[in-house]
Amino acid sequence: MITAELTVIPVGTSSTSLSNYVAAAVLALDKTGIKYKISGMGTQIESENMEDLFKAIASAHEAVIKEGANRVSTSIKIDDRRDTNRGLSDKVASVKKKLE
């Protein structure tokens, strides 16, 4: 399982609020069928393969441009673990178990 954290930031908008752009990016991810989880600072996504992961990232990036941003900065952090099949919820559960 490949997991990633994605942040798509429009640059030069007329407002400090970015929620419309974030919503456009999330709707684009939703259309790809990729599993995702939004947070206050980014979106976590997971996929079985890099091709689908990068297609989803590209769709989120393009959605922000289509929403009206003339410039977009996209940051991606990828965890490609191949020795076991662990998703986002597995990672969280592992930490919570250690906190008990």
Automatic annotation (TrEMBL):
Q: Which domain of life is it from?
A: Archaea
Q: Which Gene3D superfamilies match?
A: 3.30.70.930
What name is this protein filed under?
A: MTH1187 family thiamine-binding protein
What PANTHER family does the annotation carry? UPF0045 PROTEIN ECM15
Q: Which residues form the Thiamine-binding protein domain?
A: 4-96
UniProt-listed SUPFAM superfamilies: MTH1187/YkoF-like (SSF89957)
What's the family? Belongs to the UPF0045 family.
One Gene Ontology cellular component term attached to this UniProt record is:
cytosol
